[in-house]
Amino acid sequence: MANGKIYTTLLHITGWLLFLSVPFIFIFSQSIEGNARFLSGDPLNFLGFTIYIAIFYFHTYLLFPKLYFRKRRLLYFLSIAVLLTVVFFFRPFDRLSNQNRSRGNDDLERPGPLPHTQYRPPPIGQGRLPPGGGPGNKPPRFGSPANNSRMVPRVDIISIELFILVIAISIALILGKRWRLAVQEASRAEADKANAELSFLKAQINPHFLFNTLNNIYSLALTKNENVADSIMKLSNIMRYVTDDVNEDFVSLEKELDSIGDYISLQRLRLGKKAAIDFIIEGDISGKVIAPLILMPFVENAFKHGISNAAESNILIKLTATQNQIVFYTGNKLFATPRNTERTGIGNTNTKKRLAQVYPEKHLLDIASQNGLFTVHLVMYI
After folding, report:
1. What does the alpha-carbon distance between residue 59 and residue 184 come to, in Å, rounded to a whole number?
2. 322 half-sphere exposure, CB direction, 13 A CA radius
3. Residue 186 in this model has a pLDDT that exceeds 60
4. For the whole prediction, is pTM greater than 0.90?
5. Which of 350, 381, 352 is nearest to 365 (CA)?
């Protein structure tokens, strides 16, 4: 915040120095002595600069935002007309340049001492002319060019152009700032929308995952399996992971695999020898992070649709970690009714959306079903 204010202040100072350099270049192109007088003379010489600075900030912080953006356009344009009138009659740039020119040329315009001559009276009959001149010299009448040049103010085009430049720069800065704020608001709204969608997807995954796990333990309890206590402990570990760590954007890969391992252990206890389950981890998984529960839906689908009481069931779950990527694979025979296949498609669609949000352009997902074999091949670049 402080750095932004310092940057803005330096930007304003630099901009005004560049702006004020334009009149200085014009003024300093004249006599050197006049320039010295200008810099060391009357402080009112800089009043023109002060007028432009006051107009800029008055327009930037009051006129444009308080009048124009609040639909008070008529009052805004009347205010601009008043400011333009002030510049027209005051002529800031012309006042600067004329003061400099007149001060620099004082020595040239001031007449020097007359040479010493002896006074000679005028010849007899040739006295002084009366005031106003002779018969051929009449005083200038009202409305003559001599009087009009004093009554009609001279138009200072450069002062007006500088006024228009100051207003244009002010408008450009205000519109640029509002555009940047609009872009930031749009980006923030898009990020909030993505986070809301991601939270919704997590909410869809977590209850479904816990519901299936509770069903597995319930099946063990019905058969009075001696591993019920161990299953409850594994479920406790899974629930701790789901409730404490799943709210984070990323968790360690080790925690994710521990949760998957506990889930597979619960499935092995429930299934016994009905299925051959292989869970393989290759590579170095330490120090790597992953989105929580991003792999669990594929594991759940493998057990939900890859187990049959009437046929041999084989499930392979494999994760390979390298320096720059995580490769995840599941393969199982597909024993699914049409209704279950539809629900599996919905789960895969939700997972695809989440992958697209968490790993945009950083993942490859291939889901295939051929010859009764259902496979998932996921590559995430980290």
Report:
1. 25
2. 7
3. yes
4. no
5. 352
Residues 169 and 258: their CA atoms lie apart, in Å, by: 61
Give the span between the Cα atoms of 45 and 263, in whole angstroms.
84
Angle at 220 between CA 258 and CA 374, to 5 degrees: 60
Give residue 234's identity as a one-letter amino acid code.
K
Residues 87-102: tens digit of each pLDDT: 888 776 665 555 444 4
Q: In the block, which residue shows the tokens 């890859």?
A: 306
∠ CA 213-273-333 to the nearest 5 degrees? 75
Q: Which residues of 103-125 are buried (b: 16+ CB within 10 A; e: fewer)?
A: bbeeeeeeeeeeeeeeeeeeeee
Rg value, the chain, Cα: 44
CA dihedral sign, ordered 160, 161, 163, 167: positive
Task: Label the pairing between strands 289-290 and 275-283.
Answer: unpaired
Q: Measuring CA to CA, which residue among 354, 360, 357, 362 is closest to residue 379?
A: 362
Provide mean pLDDT across the span 331-336: 82
Q: Please say if the pLDDT value at position 32 is more than 60.
A: no
